């Protein structure tokens, strides 16, 4: 194929512009992104080679190399992974297949601080090379293709790129950065090593660099033909817990999550028994920008005996824990396991149940800690992920009790942070039910006349104002034997909470008001189901309630707003 010129997809041009301009203050991340792509390429080769060992050609050892040429002002990131065909190079390095581009760009234009992480989260890492390079050349050959089927892709990162056929004896990809004027600081082994140490130490393949020697004539370090491994090259989760420092766990989290904040909690275990696996799971402190994006990439990577199998293995985590990040390495699954197979596997089911329990106990540890800092952490976590966790009530029947204990609400007692256990501990003598009211906002809930009698008697009422609450209540109807009861439904029988005098007074009032009630019934007619005298009001003359078992007024409003 002779040289062809292609235009970048419009989104790529926008991304390129944004990435090179707004990520400049964090420019060293280009190396993290290109090393991560090289490592992914090796993982892909290993995976495809499970069915076709010939793809290894004569090079069974997968590795990455980072080279630089001080005179030519280039840095090369080389891998002997899967490589790309010409079609793949055009598609993968010229278009963006993922959704959420607009949101990504809006974020990139806005909040400067998160920028560097967003690029990895969104997966446009390749283009970060243009932060430091005014030209990028990619020389690649797909594993299994003949040597004369190599491809050279090159671009100055503005508007278009060129593709041509080349000879490339070695399998895999060289990404060559032609550094911009002023970026010479990266032409140093020390500098490159320190960036690799900072971002890429966890890469489980060896990253090789040339050893250097002092040249008297040039008065400088010069590269030799000897190579050395500059990273640890052992996947963190395969190491023994006692050898791993907290800082290493934190670094690994940052590398896999692109989240610069420390995680809320993590857990690392080797699980033995019928199903054997290692889990290293993290709960983030902050939600990613795409938590609500349906086709967002999941957080748990599946390995089988250290071989990377897939990202985003949904079968390993329930949907309501989709914010959990980490790695699960199974000793039992077949290496050629597919997504379909995962759904059916008994081992996967056991892993999923075990991992779910682990995550819940991590959350419980933070939530139940007596340390104020942990309590604050949990409150922050709840703000970020509470709505997602509530989904679990409908999704995960087995863990319903544990989930309910992790929930936090507003109530007439406190504006936030009220657990059901707190509520129960404050229940009045003779109170059986957990009372709640649903509304669009805290202010609306607090202003409801339905609360009057509860206020007067000092009975706490939960104020449920999240959109998911109505739905949650259809799955959560009791807590430790106490029925969750709406104050806005039915006759609200305060039962034992009413004293004898009050009961008598109520009966008398009902008797005395009978003529008025009859009149109201007659004039309201079909528009109401019933009119009755109530003890629930203290200051207001009347209020509307729905019947037990009917759709609540709040839900009715939501359904109406949704056009149903
Ligand atoms: P992501 O890695 O999140 O997919 P990138 O922008 O980093 O996004 O890379 C885009 C795509 O380009 C990759 O998905 C991959 O298909 C291809 N690619 C990039 N680098 C390499 C490489 N070294 N070897 C093979 N394919 C690569
Ligand atoms: Mg990438």
Describe how the helices and strands are arranged.
Blueprint: E1 4-7, H1 10-22, H2 29-49, E2 64-69, E3 74-79, H3 86-92, H4 101-109, H5 115-122, E4 133-141, E5 150-155, E6 160-166, E7 172-179, H6 189-199, E8 207-215, E9 220-229, H7 246-257, E10 265-271, E11 277-283, E12 300-304, E13 307-310, E14 325-330, H8 339-344, H9 346-367, H10 372-395, H11 400-406, E15 410-411, H12 420-425, E16 434-438, H13 442-446, H14 452-457, E17 462-464, H15 469-473, E18 478-479, E19 482-486, H16 500-512, H17 514-524, H18 553-561
Parallel strand pairs: 2-8, 12-14, 16-17, 16-19
Antiparallel strand pairs: 1-6, 2-3, 3-7, 4-5, 4-7, 5-6, 8-9, 10-11, 11-14, 12-13, 15-17, 18-19
Helix pairs in contact: 1-4, 2-6, 4-5
Pfam families: HATPase_c_3, HSP90
Family: Belongs to the heat shock protein 90 family.
Domain Histidine kinase/HSP90-like ATPase: 26-183
């Amino acid at each position: 194929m002779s040289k062809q010129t292609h235009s970048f997809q419009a989104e790529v041009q926008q991304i390129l512009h944004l990435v090179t301009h707004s990520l400049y203050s964090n420019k060293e991340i280009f190396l993290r992104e290109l090393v991560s792509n090289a490592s992914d390429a090796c993982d892909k080769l290993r995976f495809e080679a499970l069915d076709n060992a010939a793809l290894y050609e004569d090079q069974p050892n997968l590795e990455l190399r980072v080279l630089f040429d001080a005179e030519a002002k280039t840095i090369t990131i080389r891998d002997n992974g899967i490589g790309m065909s010409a079609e793949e190079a055009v598609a993968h390095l010229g278009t963006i297949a993922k959704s959420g581009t607009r949101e990504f760009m809006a974020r990139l234009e806005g909040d400067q601080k998160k920028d560097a992480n967003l690029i990895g989260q969104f997966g446009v890492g390749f283009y970060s090379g243009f932060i430091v390079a005014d030209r990028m050349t990619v020389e690649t050959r797909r594993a299994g293709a003949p040597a004369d089927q190599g491809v050279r892709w090159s671009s100055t990162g503005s508007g278009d790129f060129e593709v041509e056929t080349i000879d490339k004896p070695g399998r895999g990809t060289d990404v060559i950065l032609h550094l911009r004027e002023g970026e010479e600081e990266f032409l140093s082994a020390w500098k490159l090593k320190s960036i690799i140490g900072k971002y890429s130490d966890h890469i489980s393949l060896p990253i090789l660099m040339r050893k250097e020697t002092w040249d008297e004539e040039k008065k400088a370090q010069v590269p030799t033909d000897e190579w050395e491994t500059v990273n640890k090259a052992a996947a963190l989760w395969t190491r023994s817990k006692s050898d791993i420092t907290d800082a290493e766990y934190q670094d690994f989290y940052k590398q896999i999550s692109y989240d610069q904040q420390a995680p809320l909690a993590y857990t690392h275990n080797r699980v033995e028994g019928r199903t054997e696996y290692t889990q290293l799971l993290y709960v983030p402190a902050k939600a990613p920008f795409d938590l609500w994006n349906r086709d967002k990439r999941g957080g748990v990577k599946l390995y089988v005996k250290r071989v990377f199998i897939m990202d985003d293995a949904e079968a390993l985590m329930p949907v309501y824990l989709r914010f959990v990040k980490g790695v699960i390495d199974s000793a039992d699954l077949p290496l050629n396991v597919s997504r379909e197979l995962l759904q059916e596997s008994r081992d996967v089911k056991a892993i999923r149940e075990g991992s779910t329990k682990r995550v819940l106990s991590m959350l419980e540890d933070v939530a139940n800690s007596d340390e104020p800092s942990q309590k604050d952490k949990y409150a922050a976590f709840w703000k970020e992920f509470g709505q997602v966790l509530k989904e679990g009530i409908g999704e995960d029947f087995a863990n319903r009790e544990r989930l309910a204990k992790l929930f936090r609400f507003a109530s007439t007692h406190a504006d936030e942070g009220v657990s059901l256990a707190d509520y129960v501990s404050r229940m009045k003598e003779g109170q059986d039910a957990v009372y709640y009211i649903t509304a669009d906002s805290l202010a609306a809930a607090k202003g409801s006349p339905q609360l009057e009698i509860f206020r007067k008697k000092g009975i706490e009422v939960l104020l449920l104002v999240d959109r998911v609450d109505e739905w949650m209540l259809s799955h959560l109807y009791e807590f430790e034997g106490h029925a969750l009861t709406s104050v806005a439904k039915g006759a609200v029988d305060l039962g034992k909470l009413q004293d004898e005098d009050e009961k008598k007074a109520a009966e008398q009032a009902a008797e005395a008001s009978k003529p008025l009630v009859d009149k109201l019934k007659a004039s309201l007619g079909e528009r109401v189901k019933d009119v009755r005298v109530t003890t629930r009001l203290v200051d207001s003359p009347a209020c509307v309630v729905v019947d037990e078992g009917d759709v609540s007024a709040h839900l009715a409003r939501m359904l109406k707003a949704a056009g149903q």
